[in-house]
Design a protein that fits this description.
With 185 residues, this protein is mainly beta. It contains two helices and 14 strands. It has a four-stranded mixed sheet with strand order 5-8-7-6, with helices on one face. The N and C termini lie far apart (44 Å).
Length: 185
Amino acid sequence: MADAGMGRGGRSYGMLGRTRHGSRTPRTQTRAHAPNRPMTIDHATPFSSPAVFHLAINVGDLDRARDFYGRVLGCTEGRSTGTWVDFDFFGHQLSLHLGEPFSTAATGRVGDKMVPMPHFGIVLLLPQWEAMARRLEAAGTDFVLKPQVRFEGEPGEQRTMFFRDPFGNPIEVKGFRTREAVYAA
């Protein structure tokens, strides 16, 4: 297990590695944080760029989760134990733990639609989004919001669809023509 703490010079030793000779080496270094100044990080970790996002959520049954996230969504399974399983969720780490899922409610207003909050998801380019929509429709997915166009003709025009996993966790899949369009204003 990695040690935690601050080393000399304001370096964070939250993730310590070891050299061949057993001495400690910082994998991530940060400058001491000063108020009103952004913290800078030297990304000397294996995930230099782009960073990998990690999300852990609860599910009620690991076998059903494996079927949905693996077979239906096409995610690759990673490590697991008897109480959790990891998936490669489109290049990001999704950890599914046995437990009670968060409660959600349709409280997020986007355009003229109310969407479940909180939710998570992925942004795909249009060809991948269209393939995912076909895959979900073929699996008989019960959509919260069926595949549709949102903000048509405006900056940020996108395709979207909302659905829930078998445990009620809401997922949104967005589709854009280009990566640049994701943050278009």
